[in-house]
Specification:
It is built from 6 helices and 3 strands; from the N terminus they run βββαααααα. The N and C termini lie far apart (90 Å). 27% of the residues are buried. It holds the Pfam family EBP. This is EXPERA domain-containing protein.
Length: 253
């Protein structure tokens, strides 16, 4: 016999007083698992609660972001001090997105089968995010495949684009267009496969709008911006080439 029910969490007086989602207790003859993810009947036999509070996890992740941002800002200022503000921001963004793709998202790809029981920083962060999309804890085939491309293709490419910006490499805008379109396309597929199927998100609006929507929408907005910038710069390049060819032909005659 199989059933599921909502059960309260018991806490000691020394437990941290941060809000937590109501867990779901799933029973069958083989296992007894209490978790807070949706849909309530998903099996997570290796699941253990996070040791750290959501606030502390976000603070630690935020420190990593700040470190990358500061290091990238110092690097581009020293390597190419005359770079425009736009190029400096693009360099910093590519370093940050490369870090997230190549390390944070690669962690999911490598550890997806044991993620539910992880107490490492990235493991706990993924479990916290999974309250908005439980597919990350069930080794969903689409997510593992999509995140693998994101981690091992877009991650290194983002760092290479940062290098191209620093040395003013002519391939910068073509590669920037490639990664931007790839990120936007990946986000569209991610939203569609979740919203068009059953809900994998807890019913609280916070998890949907902040975790699920906002964190992914950042890459939609920034990706569209850099795709547009790339198209504009590539078009300018071809226009100048065409003008040069016309001018050369006139000089020959």
């Amino acid at each position: 016999m199989t059933y599921c029910s909502i059960v309260p969490i018991s806490r000691s007086k020394d437990s941290p007083s941060y809000p937590m989602a109501t867990p779901v207790q799933f029973n069958n003859t083989a296992t007894l698992v209490s978790h807070a993810y949706y849909p309530p009947n998903i099996l997570l036999p290796q699941y253990v609660d996070n040791e750290s509070s959501p606030v502390w996890l976000i603070v630690q992740f935020g420190f990593l972001w700040v470190f990358v941002l500061v290091a990238a800002s110092i690097t581009i200022s020293r390597v190419r001090p005359t770079a425009s503000q736009s190029d400096k921001l693009a360099f910093v963004w590519m370093c940050l997105t490369g870090f997230i793709h190549l390390f944070f998202e690669a962690y999911f790809v490598i550890h997806n089968k044991t993620l539910a029981g992880s107490q490492e920083l990235f493991g706990q962060l993924w479990k916290e995010y999974s309250l908005s999309d439980s597919r990350y804890l069930t080794s969903d085939a689409f997510l593992v495949s999509m995140e693998a491309v994101t981690a091992f293709a877009w991650g290194p490419l983002a760092f290479y684009i940062a290098y191209c910006i620093a040395v003013q490499h002519p391939a910068r805008y073509a590669l920037q267009l490639l990664i931007s379109v790839g990120q936007v396309y990946g986000d569209i597929l991610y939203y569609a496969t979740s919203l068009l199927e059953i809900s994998y998100c807890r019913p609280e609006r916070y998890y949907f709008w902040f975790y699920y929507f906002f964190f992914n929408f950042i890459w939609m907005v920034v990706g569209c911006y850099y795709a547009k910038q790339s198209i504009t710069e590539i078009t300018k390049g071809f226009k100048k080439l065409a003008e040069f060819e016309v001018s050369s032909k006139k000089n020959e005659t």
